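Lecture notes, structural biology module. Today: joint structure prediction for complexes of two components.
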Amino acid sequence: MTTDQLQQLNIIQDKLVYHQIVLFNQLTSFPLASLGRGTASVQMHRGNFEMRDTLSEKIPLQTIKITQNKSDWTLLLGHESIAYLSLKFLLSAQDRLVVTPTILKGNWNRLWLRLNAQANEQIYGCGEQLSYFDLRGHHFPLWSSEPGIGRNKHTLTTFQADQEHAGGDYYTTNYPEATFISSQKYYCHADTYTYADFDFRAPDHHELQFWGIPTKLTFETATDFESLTSKLSRLLGRTRGLPDWTNNGVILGLQGGTKRVNEIKTRLEAHGVKIAGLWCQDWEGVRMTSFGKRLFWDWQPDTSLYPNLKDQINAWRQSGIRFLGYINPYVASDSALFKIGTHNGYFAKNKAGDVYLVDFGEFNCGVVDFTNPTAFEWFKQLIQQRLINEGFAGWMADFGEYLPTDVVLFDHSDPMARHNQWPVLWAKCNYEAVRASPNADQLLYFMRAGATGSQHYNQLLWAGDQSVNWSRDDGLIFTIPAALSSGLIGNSLSHSDIGGYTSMYGNVRTKELFMRWAEMAAFTPIMRTHEGNRPDQNFQVYDDPEAMNHLAKCTDWFVTLSPYRQAVVRDAVKLGLPAQRPLMMYYDDSQAMRCQSEYLFGRDLLVAPVAQPAQKTWPVFLPDDQWVHLWSGKAYGSGTHQVAAPLGQPPVFYRQQSPYTKLFQTLGGLQ
Amino acid sequence: MTTDQLQQLNIIQDKLVYHQIVLFNQLTSFPLASLGRGTASVQMHRGNFEMRDTLSEKIPLQTIKITQNKSDWTLLLGHESIAYLSLKFLLSAQDRLVVTPTILKGNWNRLWLRLNAQANEQIYGCGEQLSYFDLRGHHFPLWSSEPGIGRNKHTLTTFQADQEHAGGDYYTTNYPEATFISSQKYYCHADTYTYADFDFRAPDHHELQFWGIPTKLTFETATDFESLTSKLSRLLGRTRGLPDWTNNGVILGLQGGTKRVNEIKTRLEAHGVKIAGLWCQDWEGVRMTSFGKRLFWDWQPDTSLYPNLKDQINAWRQSGIRFLGYINPYVASDSALFKIGTHNGYFAKNKAGDVYLVDFGEFNCGVVDFTNPTAFEWFKQLIQQRLINEGFAGWMADFGEYLPTDVVLFDHSDPMARHNQWPVLWAKCNYEAVRASPNADQLLYFMRAGATGSQHYNQLLWAGDQSVNWSRDDGLIFTIPAALSSGLIGNSLSHSDIGGYTSMYGNVRTKELFMRWAEMAAFTPIMRTHEGNRPDQNFQVYDDPEAMNHLAKCTDWFVTLSPYRQAVVRDAVKLGLPAQRPLMMYYDDSQAMRCQSEYLFGRDLLVAPVAQPAQKTWPVFLPDDQWVHLWSGKAYGSGTHQVAAPLGQPPVFYRQQSPYTKLFQTLGGLQ
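The predicted structure, tokenised, for the full assembly:
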């Protein structure tokens, strides 16, 4: 170790100090690691999971020996002669701290690691977390799943959904990840896809539980959160950015076939709505279930709904409008494609050697086995042939969270360790399909599921299936913590279904909800509408002239904002900076450190969406800076201000120092 | 060990065999014991608890040495040199197997013991369990608490109650106990009051978890369940029986003062209702809370409600009617008694040395500290002076489950180890107060809370606070598993509030529910009504002539049945046999082994209460015997029969071989 490195990584008086941050303390007295053995029980109900661990053994380890080698420190931990664990702390060439746990004795499948914590510390990240931006005070099981309906055990909606095993909780997410950022200005990333549970409840430590031994943990520090996020994204990867055509307006989620789509498109255009794309998820046909309108997962066009689709796509393209579709990595058991996949052994198997059928809600599917290179290639080519070559400009690459833990995979790897990884294998399949296309830069796919690697292999996140309401944990406003937490760990681009998706148990979308959601979406990377799971029972913009006019205005803003947004996206591609940034990234005041109802869009815009119905004004917290209200041009200082916020004037502020002041003034004139 | 004993307790091929039952198997390979350390977190919300264990260590032990001594076997268990546990298996003079766990090395506060299980085995007991009679397939946290409202996480009532931390679960009970009976015809009793969790989910073992090391575990076998229960009650104690006057009719729960009570009494007598006692829980006054009408816990008569109470009691006594009251071991902080108790240091303290105030729902109370002999004596004398000497013939001795785990007790014992014991200390206080009275045989107290020792110190159980409906887990029919499970472990006498108690979230008592409950109560040891927590909003028998006539008929049955019931109660006192007996006690068919909707009242009556509204017939399972339908006199064999069951003809059958045939025929004629 060089003298310089010695200063950056040292053990001083029972503390492991990395860049002045005490990462581990009480090295000789505190059980900073425990090993154990457990037996997992996993119940899956349509992507919702019940996890139970029967723990047969847990051994807290004592520090036996601390060794300083040439380029690293090694902690030898153990307990009598039954368990030995070595933790090697190496400062890498990139100035990262790499901690490698190695079991030297014993047969263990559970590991607990305790990091030092400060009482007033905040923690962020752990994938896409929807209920809490600051994770402190809670624990987070990290397991890829449906987000669940309601996501709050105190709501009637969740209670009702739980009767069908479909209610979520504060931690349920399509995208969990064993990566977090501390307000002490370091990140911690664990190289593992096993089930984990990160517990941030204790005042003096964070406890990281793993159902398996991670390959390594990586830490890095920075002097500010912007560069910390940038450094983390250098480790985990960055997005490819967005095609230029996405700046042309909204991507309209429409269904029902060419005729209906064209009718609605014409109607919206007549009201001045600027349209970038038509996203028809039912291009492959529909099936009705009790949950609502579902799609027919055979991945070939429904020629009765969309006759001559390739020609039609071309015609739309001529008028400046792209066509987008939908795909996921499952194949319906009642399709021709299923026969082909079965014949070739492309699907994951059950223990009897047959295709493992997964219940998706009144229909069953085979799971494309991405551990089989031939199956991976088959599905990649399917995307190329059925989507890209047909002229699709993009698609929703749905799902990825449903890998059962009792499948038999082609490579015989453990499904418990593959489950959380599956979304990124699926992302990679899309990534490679796109990369091979000469039009790669003009293609757009977006996913809700994620894992380590999604930062690079997924182009654009969407926040999953919100309920069509204003509810705590599952409504409009909870797309913000989703974007902020995933963004801080390198998923720079996110967006959500305008108007929400899930309509169950009497929750139906109102016109006002749609309008407020559209206002917010104008200040995100992408505007995209969704008709929801029960289109006929919910408010649709194309049925209402006032809402169409409102959407037209929002698309005006969106198009006008393009130069700024393109710069924001460039920061995402080049620096790994999120488009939607938490206030804490630049302002260290305690309210900013926890704020999850507002965000910065890029560096210069502060957005505080109205998240309740029937509001004429809205309280906006402004951190310490000089702000200008977008619509009134009025200057504001820091503090909480009650701001006029009628429909059509969402609370948005720009920084007086911004180089885009003129653009923002133009935008403010479009109200 | 004598040759005879050797045959009864032996270790043969890795199995510990006791009277041909394999209690422990795989002695050398199976971790039949684990030791650990944990830190408990306990949150109490008005008697409802959230328990969380942070387990820092769990060590499965290996068998190191098996020793046969003169009169016992000893298993030395251990793990490397860090944990040693000795399990001594001694056959006592009574032919009981006494297992004594002793920690030889290490500082442990968690113990797991694994007993051998058979795949088709049933388990019963664990105190008063309301949701399941056969406990197999579930685990049972054993911690004294409110039963909780609804007691089923799938019901809307429980969901609503959970918003106020007041919803129960299948295992929540006023009376948990670390004692069970196996269908292999042995009992297991653990001598401990610590928190425990008995897990009967595995096919091949039962896992008993203790948050502390039990003094000992006792096992005993029998050739049939009747003698097994009798043997267990010899170990744990037996009831004193019931005063003769309880045979005179119903004990009426009435409130509102002498005037109102007399009016209603007269009205009921006019309809032919036979009254044994008037139970006026508001003798000490009332206070209104949002939950409903509550009592004023200062334990002195409310002279405005009940003027000259002693004289009035005497007057009622002259007309053959007893008076009963109410008391519990708490003292309201706004009472004169509280000042006296505080001054003398009779209440449990908080860490600051002040009286620990417990929240009982909009009022606070001091907890009489039964570990302080002077406080115990004080409260015992209070019962004598304020109740017995005033002429009370009985009282509800309510509560006992609310001992907080962070109190400081007089004897400095650990409240975690005292919490579950508290109900039996409270029972003992009542027991001693009664025993000192020359009229002891004529006094009656009844409790809902219990623990090991309640078998002797509590005279009569009542099944706690049912909801006023037919609901699963919390309605009428769940008083049956309550009586059966507690009865099998020696609490021979139980009963319930006719009509239920808890009316919340729109649940209100119907006339039909009251009538069905009264029908059932006629075939239990005691008939007692309750007006419920919200008397004005719920059906009351005295408001309805038809219901009064029905109740009159039920009291006729009850009085007529006295000779039989007295014999049943004698069996309780002399043999420890429960008055309400499970079918499995005498019939080993698989349906009988699990039946929890029917019971035998004594040996000869089978009672199958109608547990749903608007039923004209009811399906009755009859085990293998010769049965006679009480009301029609029709003979039935075994099997399930759809039986006529209009109001006034609850499905009751008697055994043809019964010595009480004539009495039953008389009874059947009273329909």
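Point to remember: Residues 373-388 of chain B form the longest helix (16 residues).
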